[in-house]
Write a structure and sequence with these properties.
mainly alpha
Length: 168
């Protein structure tokens, strides 16, 4: 296991802060707003070691709870998405590290992290919270976000691929 470094801790904090700022840039479209938070989750996954990427999203959750009125904010409709962001950052980060950050594997890693982390946790959380069937949760929590998340993934691979050498 790699050792904890000051650089890693600083980068973790930076990506947590960027995710907080990204979560504040929101377009309300219903129960779950469109934000730039996932873009910074993707960037963390692409640029940081997996455990630092996940830690940055845990810090984001803690900051979101602080700014949004406590642990109750985590228990609301966004809670599953926020928890899913941790899983997305870690899983996508693992694949990206193993494949050297190449374009197609990076796109697939971020897409998989989004599907099995963010969307899955978001849907399950929303279904439990609102007592709605999968189809209703999917139409509210996933369908409107597919185009934007696809664009964020493409931008992440384009931008992070170019700045990765500076971060590492």
């Amino acid at each position: 296991m790699a050792k904890i470094t000051v650089k890693g801790i600083v980068l973790c904090g930076i990506f947590a802060a960027l995710t907080v700022v990204g979560s504040r840039i929101a377009i309300p479209i219903g129960a779950v707003p469109v934000t730039l938070a996932t873009f910074f989750t993707y960037m963390a996954a692409y640029l940081l070691p997996p455990r630092y990427a996940a830690a940055s999203q845990i810090l984001f959750i803690m900051a979101a709870a602080f700014f949004d009125g406590g642990i109750g904010a985590l228990l609301g409709p966004l809670g599953g998405f926020r928890i899913g962001m941790v899983l997305c950052a870690f899983l996508a980060g693992l694949v990206i590290r193993k494949t050297g950050g190449k374009t197609i594997p990076g796109i697939l890693a971020l897409t998989g992290g989004t599907l099995f982390g963010i969307y899955l946790f978001g849907i399950l959380w929303y279904m439990a919270l609102k007592s709605v069937p999968f189809s209703a949760a999917f139409s509210v929590c996933v369908l409107p976000f597919i185009p934007g998340d696809s664009l964020k993934i493409a931008l992440t691979v384009l931008i992070a691929g170019r700045i990765r050498k500076w971060v590492n």
